[in-house]
Amino acid sequence: FKGGDTCEYLLSSGRFLGEKVWQPHSCMMHKYKNSEAKNCLIDKHIAFIGDSRIRQLFYSFIKLINPQVKEEGNKHGNILFEDKSASIKVDFLWYPEVNSSMRQRIKSWTESSVAKPHIIVAGAATWSIKIHNGSNEALTQYKINITSIAPLLEKLARSSDVYWVLQDPVYEDMLSESRKMITNEKIDAYNEAAVRILNSSSRNSKAKVKVFSVSKLIAQETIMKSADGLHLPESSRDTNAMILMNVYCNKIMKPIDGSCCQPQPPLTLIQKLAFCFFTLSIIGYLIISLIHRNNYRKNKSCTDLESGEEKKPAISPPNASTLEMLLHSFCKLGLIMTYFYLCDRADLFMKENKFYTHASFFIPIVYILVLGVFYTENTKETKVLNREQTDEWKGWMQLVILIYHISGASTFLPVYMHIRVLVAAYLFQTGYGHFSYFWIKGDFGVYRVCQVLFRLNFLVVVLCIVMDRPYQFYYFVPLVTVWFMIIYATLAVWPQIVQKKANGNCLWHFGVLLKLICLLICIYFLSYSQGAFEKIFSFWPLSKCFELNGNVYEWWFRWKLDRYVVFHGMLFAFIYLALQKRQMISEGKGDPLFSGRVSNVLLFISVVSFLTYSIWASSCKNKTECNELHPSVSVVQILAFILIRNIPGYVRSVYSSFFAWFGKISLELFICQYHIWLAADTKGILVLIPGYPMFNVLVSTFIFVCVAHEISQITNDLAQIVVPKDNSTLLKRLLCIAGFFSGLLLFSAMQDQSSH
After folding, report:
1. Cis omega (within 30 of 0) for bond into 266
2. Residue 42 pLDDT more than 50?
3. Does the annotation count 205 as an active-site position?
4. What is the tens place of the pLDDT at every residue in 426-472?
5. CB atoms closer than 10 angstroms to residue 405
6. What is the number of alpha carbons within 13 Å of residue 256 lying toward its C-beta?
7. 756 an active-site residue?
8. Which residue from 124, 25, 88, 90 is spatially nearest to 241, judged by alpha carbons?
């Protein structure tokens, strides 16, 4: 799809999402805060010149800098605003007609001795229509006057940003008698004249007067809410001011969720090297596969012409060598990464803002839950949290999280709090799964650690390189990686206590509990000592992994938000495995987990606890306060769900293969969504097919899921090659990986130095 000039789209086209959210065609609009507006406009002079409608726009614009400004002062005179803290000057100059007075003011700015405004916003016409009673002579004079002003504006456009605001339509039924001559037909004639005359002498020049025509589209939808039929309602003029801010500031501030008017970022040195690597991998794979095919064809026997029988080949097709498998994987990965880059770094595809409605979140949720129920199958084993069940759990949680992200449901607090529980449940499974493995297997070898770390981090490391993003940006992977290392350290440190050892002496169970208590104390201390936490993760090279925007606060916040849930997962695994070993629970097919009465009581308590948490989360009024309580109480709903899912024998014996399939690629789905399903690093939505929102979601979702599945396969294939079981070979590979990351740090330092 031809992307085109997003600035042009921002100034000329778009539509409303709901009643108040304006969506420019093809790009995303950032909502500027006061501090951001000040940083962008520091030491700038902005001039608004025109009639009462331009005065409205002036007030909305300065309220973005200082919301306390009141609309007072001489309505038919000049109004001056200054923010001394940022040295910003914004002037409104009362020139209600395009005449010699306006021309003289604009001409004064073109003189070299006068300081020119950095931004000029001009526009007028309705006064000319009103004063001259809508006569054709007035329109002719308007054309003459704007023709004389146009070259001056075009001259100013060489050094300043100049915008001509077209006239908004009016709501004729609401106009007072003195304004009845201002008709939409007349306004269209004046607008047509302005568009035709402006830039007529500089059509091929980059220095052009930018025609601000989008205000017309906004007014067409909202002018009915006008107080007098002429002036726009406040929400509409605020939208116009925000568009103006995006046009000027996006190229300066470069907000992630403001893709309009942002130039494509240049390729970094690391990105160029990655491109070369993937290109060489593709070429290498093609050469090796061609050589193998030719060798195979030469050795393959032809049909025996005399007997008409086909002889067996002299040799069987050769098995793919390790090098060929490696190049094949990197070849596929290179093509996939090209798609990632085109989707979220190039201007090839459109991006749009999210817009939340209850229907956009809850209808897809109901749909996927119904689908999941239709794919019910029997499990291979009936243990608590068996493999099929945990895959199913991960799958439906991931689908809910994806719907949450694409629908923009984070703005609705009850949904946000429930999604926080789903993220906590992932971490709970991390604690439960890794504790169970180390406790039962007793395998603390380097191979196991490297396999887990590779599978968790491979995709994220590649994306950090290709998409030029810090490691901490993909916050969930650093989170599960650090927690895995904490679990490993807790259990691997002397004395190593595993199930086999503890079965010989019950006292060893107290040793494990002591380790878990020590871990809990450390977590508690770090969660209430931000300084100590930041010192640990501010040491180089750890700081390169955990810093975001120059500090580790975001990492501390993410870690703190679910600080206890991994511990809860480990403790649950310890208690469950102890009960299982002593045969205190029944895990036969169709059998309830406990005796009839105990099962019923626990099931009742679980249902009540589950609903109580949901009621509390739904009644949350303040996100900060609820986030403070979340780490301590999220485990209630998680444990309640596990008991509801596992106490009844029948429920424990079945699972949804639909959800389990997604569960197996849940990590890839979570990471890939950042760039090829959502857009602008999750802030917006990727648009492959403009104009058809539902069809677009279907197509982009299909591609997204296929890509995630393929990356999962590539990661598994590469894990077998990069992390071999042989210790001596593994050591060599680890040295190579250490060299790779050292080179990456070196190139990153060079990149930072050149950018500064």
Report:
1. no
2. yes
3. no
4. 999 999 999 999 999 999 999 999 999 999 999 999 999 999 999 99
5. 19
6. 15
7. no
8. 90
Taking the C-alpha atoms of residue 655 and residue 638, their distance in angstroms, rounded to an integer, is: 18
In the three-class reduction of DSSP (H, G, I as helix; E, B as strand; rest coil), residue 212 is classed as strand
State residue 199's pLDDT score.
73
- DSSP, collapsed to helix, strand or coil, labels residue 76 as coil
Give the tokens for residue 125. 């016409």
The secondary element (H helix, E strand) that includes residue 730 is helix 727-755
Strands 45-50 and 88-94: parallel
Q: Which amino acid is at 191?
A: N
Among residues 437, 306, 389, 366, which one has the least CA distance to residue 653?
A: 389
Q: Report the C-alpha gap between 148 and 89 in whole angstroms.
A: 28
pLDDT in tens, 624-633: 999 999 999 9
Concerning whether 52 is annotated as a catalytic residue, the answer is yes
CA distances from 439 to 233, 489, 496, 497, 501 (A): 66, 13, 10, 8, 10
Q: Give the pLDDT of residue 4.
A: 57
How far is 614 from 622, CA to CA, in rounded Å?
A: 15
Q: Is the pLDDT of residue 325 over 60?
A: yes
Dihedral angle of Cα 275, 280, 283, 284, to the nearest 10 degrees: -150
Instruction: List, for residues 196-239, the tens digit of each pLDDT value.
Output: 999 776 555 555 899 999 999 999 999 999 999 999 999 999 99
Catalytic position from the list 25, 30, 45, 231: 231
- Choose, from 52, 148, 360, 614, the residue flagged as catalytic: 52
Q: What is the pLDDT of residue 20?
A: 82
- pLDDT for position 206: 58
Give me the catalytic one of 35, 108, 159, 228.
Answer: 228
Token duo for residue 719: 């894990």
Distance set, CA 134 to CA 6, 175, 195, 196, 206 (Å): 36, 14, 19, 20, 35
Which residue shows structure tokens 């849930």?
565
DSSP bridge pairs for 47: 91, 120
3-state secondary structure string across 575-607: HHHHHHHCCCCCCCCCCCCCCHHHHHHHHHHHH
d(CA 646, CA 603): 10
Q: Higher confidence at residue 752 or residue 278?
A: 278
Residue-averaged pLDDT of the chain? 91
Q: What is the pTM assigned to this prediction? A: 0.91
Architecture of the domain spanning 6-253: 3-Layer(aba) Sandwich (3.40)
CA–CA distance, 278 with 327 (Å, rounded to integer): 9
pLDDT grade for 302, boundaries at 50, 70 and 90: very low
